[in-house]
Design goal:
With about 290 residues, the protein is α/β, with parallel strands linked by helices. The chain is built from 11 helices and 12 strands. It has a 6-stranded parallel beta sheet. A 4-stranded antiparallel beta sheet has the order 3-5-1-12, covered by helices on one side. A two-stranded antiparallel ribbon has the order 2-4. Helix 9 links the parallel strand 9 and strand 10.
C-alpha cells in the first residue's frame, strides 16, 4: 500500500456505490426543506478519544456528493483527538453537505475505529521488538481503506491479497501432505516463473516448527494458536533464522505476553473484522 491509496480508481467506485446506496434517487428531506442555493458551513467533531483516519477521504466523498462542497481537515490522519475537538470543516451548498454527510461519516468513523484499535495494540507492545500487523479479515471492498487505517494507527500491513506472497496454511499443508512438500512445491513454482516472492508457512505445533526450520527458502514462520510457553520455545528453536509471526486469538489482554516471547510480528484479525467505530459527528454551524 502506497501514498497514492486515495487516488486509486477503486476508491472512487466504492464512494460512488456508497452514495448510490444511501441517496438513491435523491435526498427527499433536504430537497423539501432547503433552497438549492443556500450555502452553509459544517464542522466535524470528535466525541471521544482516539486516532483519526480518513480525513482526506472525507473531502473526496463530499466532492462526489456535490462538486461545489469543499472539506478542510484540521488534523492529519494518524493524529490523536479528544472529545469536543473540531477535526474538519465542510463548506458549500447545505444540500450537498447533507447529501454526503452519512457516507463521509461511515468511512471516517470506521477507519478511525480501526486506527484507534490498532494504536491500542501498538501501545500495549511498546518497548518490545514486535510489530502489530493486520490480516485479510476485512470488509469486502474496504481492504485498501482498512489497511490504510491500520498504518495510521501505527501498525504494519500483512499481504494485501493472495498474489503478494506465499502463505502456506493448514489446508495447503494437508493437500501437499506435509510442510516440506508444500514448501518445495512453492519454491519450484516460483523458480520456474522467475518470481521473487516471500514464503511464509503456518505451524500449529513445535514439531511443525522443527520441520519448517529445516526447509530452505522460508522468509517467515507463523505460530498459530500456540501457548505463550510453546511460542517462546519456538522462538528459541528458530533463533532468528527467519521472521516469526504469532497469530490466533490475540487480545489486548494477551498481546504483551506474546510480544515478550520475542516474536517479530503479531497478526490481529480483530483490527479490521470487529473494530468499534469512533464517535464523530457533523454539525451545521452556519
Amino acid at each position: 500500500m502506497c501514498a497514492d491509496t486515495l487516488q486509486d480508481s477503486r476508491i472512487g467506485r466504492l464512494i460512488e456505490q456508497a452514495l448510490l446506496e444511501d441517496v438513491g434517487f435523491g435526498d427527499i428531506t433536504s430537497e423539501s426543506l432547503i433552497p438549492e442555493e443556500q450555502l452553509g458551513r459544517a464542522v466535524l467533531q470528535a466525541n471521544e478519544n482516539g486516532i483519526v483516519s480518513g480525513m482526506e477521504l472525507v473531502g473526496i466523498v463530499f466532492q462526489y456528493a456535490d462538486a461545489q462542497t469543499t472539506a478542510q481537515p484540521k488534523i492529519a490522519d494518524g493524529a490523536m483527538v479528544a472529545p469536543g475537538q473540531i477535526i474538519g470543516e465542510v463548506d458549500g451548498p447545505v444540500r450537498g453537505i447533507l447529501l454526503g454527510e452519512r457516507v463521509a461519516l461511515n468511512f471516517l468513523q470506521r477507519m478511525s475505529g480501526v486506527a484507534t484499535l490498532t494504536h491500542k495494540y501498538v501501545h500495549a507492545v511498546a518497548g518490545t521488538s514486535a510489530k502489530i500487523t493486520d490480516t485479510r479479515k476485512t470488509v469486502p471492498g474496504f481492504r485498501m481503506l482498512d489497511k490504510k487505517a491500520v498504518r495510521d494507527g501505527g501498525g504494519v500491513n500483512h499481504r494485501f491479497g493472495l498474489d503478494q506472497m506465499v502463505l502456506i496454511k493448514e489446508n495447503h499443508i494437508a493437500a501437499a501432505r506435509g510442510i516440506t512438500n508444500a514448501v518445495n512445491a512453492c519454491r519450484r513454482y516460483l523458480r520456474e516463473r522467475d518470481l521473487t516472492i516471500a514464503i511464509e508457512v503456518e505451524t500449529t505445533s513445535i514439531q511443525q516448527v522443527e520441520e519448517a526450520i529445516r526447509c530452505e527458502g522460508l522468509t517467515r514462520i507463523m505460530l498459530d494458536n500456540f501457548t505463550v510457553d510453546d511460542m517462546a520455545a519456538a522462538v528459541r528453536i528458530i533463533d532468528h533464522a527467519v521472521e516469526v509471526e504469532a497469530s490466533g486469538g490475540v487480545t489486548l489482554q494477551t498481546v504483551r505476553a506474546i510480544a515478550d516471547t520475542g516474536v517479530d510480528f503479531i497478526s490481529v484479525g480483530a483490527l479490521t473484522h470487529s473494530p468499534k467505530a469512533l464517535d464523530i459527528s457533523l454539525e451545521i454551524v452556519s
